[in-house]
Amino acid sequence: MKRLLSLASLLTLAAVLHAAPEAFKIDPTHSSVGFSIRHFFSKVPGSFAKFEGVIHYDGANPEASSVEATVDVTTVDTRSQKRDDHLRSKDFFTVEQFPTATFRSKSWKKTGENTFDVTGDMTIKGNAKEIVLHVTMLGMGPGMKPGSTISGWEARTTLQRADFGITGFDKVLGADVDLTLNIEAGL
pTM (2 decimals)? Predict the structure, then answer.
């Protein structure tokens, strides 16, 4: 019976890798969206608790893949309520007017066996800027439910906060924001 289930899982995975793009839904309970920014001389980390998205991955033709994601900016968390409230204010994210940030890919370029440069539009505070995510597919295989498939991804990039209208506190904060995404997504 175990061999039959393993064979079914392998056939499912083979079908995913060689079929039209499949829609892998991001699992926020097994994923994270994190950032860090220089504060004077050290880096302060943060994350966002709520986000969603779909990765349309085409194993036979990765360049035909795409991704769309939305982050609920109101859920920013730097482990300091006072700082988080300030980040939600007009000085930074202006969450009352712009509660979400989005990313929509425009192209995928294969850069290695399991690596890609994913170019797309990042929109924060109503400002859209083309960025490149450096993505690694960490793996793909059977999920916990029979017939399901999960995939693991890591993406990194550095944003210029001024590109998104976040310009204050220049003497205190760095211009660069390092963004790190650790994503599990499933069919």
Answer: 0.88
* Rg of the chain, C-alpha, whole Å: 18
Strands 66-72 and 76-77, by their bridges, are: unpaired
Q: How far apart are CA 124 and CA 92, in angstroms?
A: 10
To 10 degrees, the CA torsion angle through 161, 163, 165, 167? Answer: 50
Residue percentage of the chain with pLDDT more than 90:
87
What's CA 13's distance to the chain center, in Å?
A: 23
- For each of the domains in the chain, give its residue range(s) and CATH number, in order of start: 2-186 (2.40.128.110)
Sign of CA dihedral 180, 22, 128, 133: positive
Query: 31 near 151, Cβ under 8 Å?
Result: no
